[in-house]
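Task card 7
Instruction: Convert sequence to structure tokens.
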Amino acid sequence: MLTFLKKQISSLKEWSLFTFTVLLFTFLMVTSLVVWVHMFFKSQEQPLAISMSERTILTIQTLHQAILHIPEDQQQDFIDSYIKSNHLITITESSPQDSYVAAPNSVFWNQFKSRIIKNTHNLQNIIFAQSVNDVEGIWVGFSFKDYHFWLSSQSTNIYSPQLLKNHIGSGVVILVFSIIGTWITIGSINRYIQPIISVTANMSRGKKPDMLPENKGPKEIKEINAVINHMIHELDQTENDRKVMLAGISHDLRTPISRINLEIEMTDMDQKIRDSINEDLDQMVYIIDQLMMFSTSMQLATNKMVNKNISPIITKLCKHQQKISDTMGEEFLFEVEKDLYSYIPHTNLSRILMNLIENARKYGHLPDADNFIQVWAYKQDDQIIIDVSDNGPGITEEEKKRVMRPFSRGNQARTGVQGAGLGLAIIERLLKPYKGRIHLISKKDEGLTCRVVLPFIFENKSPVSDKEI
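Output:
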């Protein structure tokens, strides 16, 4: 039972605010109506007992006075006439053969009995019963002189079907109108919340969202929209400043680097020194390129979603890289399954694979061994798996988390060439809008496998918007 409750409580986290509020309000309304109906009927027991007891007392006192003051030869005629004329309470003469069920211990009966006993002192053998001879009702049996009577009125069941039907009907009407009111209220709130969700979702994907209206909705919504609009403006301004700064740094650094390259070629210096300086300059250009790529990776990752077969682009890229490896004396193997469909643009996918293959080529080999690079692309369940493996020293579990962060590099065993440490961060940014992931699989001295995972999209599925992705 406890496990079931935990599952139900945990499932509440998946409900929308609209569904949760409507169901909660419905539960509270139903509970309130049930309690109200119960309390209403309970509150009617005491007034009903007083009313019924007054009628019974009046009938008993009338019979008592008649027996006391009317001559004996006329008493039976009066009693018969009174019995026929009394329509509120039924009066019958009792007999020893009558069977009855005693009255229960309840609020109604306790109040009813106490008032009868209090106001009728001369009665003998008073009996209170809820049924006599299998006939239900409010029964009072008593004796006076030689007369023995049963007084009965309608049943004590205040929960009569008609009365219950009337109250349940009223409750259902109230409940329906309350749920409709709640539906309209929460629906109107959702109309203001949905644009906020859309804006924040676009911001998380790196897209510039539309401004929210600041002149519609309740005061609180207007204030939230104004704050979000200000945040969008500030982030946009910061992004523009960052782009201008990076573009300026790239331009200002490339100019002196080109000048240094030219001056080196024109100077008469040792070839080894010249090659060493050129390597350093090439590394600086590589770092600048990584910085520019990192700054534009989210922008490139927010292209329009189109379902395309990515198998040809992977095959074409691998064939080109295989030719490069052949000229460098490396071994490059690949195998690509046909008809792998995904929303990721070909440009983004090419950049991801190029980055991973270049990393494997530069860092993924042991000092005394030739490069051995493998690329495998295949479908597994509803996912596309792309593995890029090398035969390098691998990385430890601690390093896996660190190298995914921007400007972080692996240990010196894998990174004899220094870079900006942005390669994997760029890949992660390019994959994120398409629900892609990258995993690092490695064992010490057994190489590193960079695994790209993308959702497989069926060929006949129509392109969808960013929201659906």
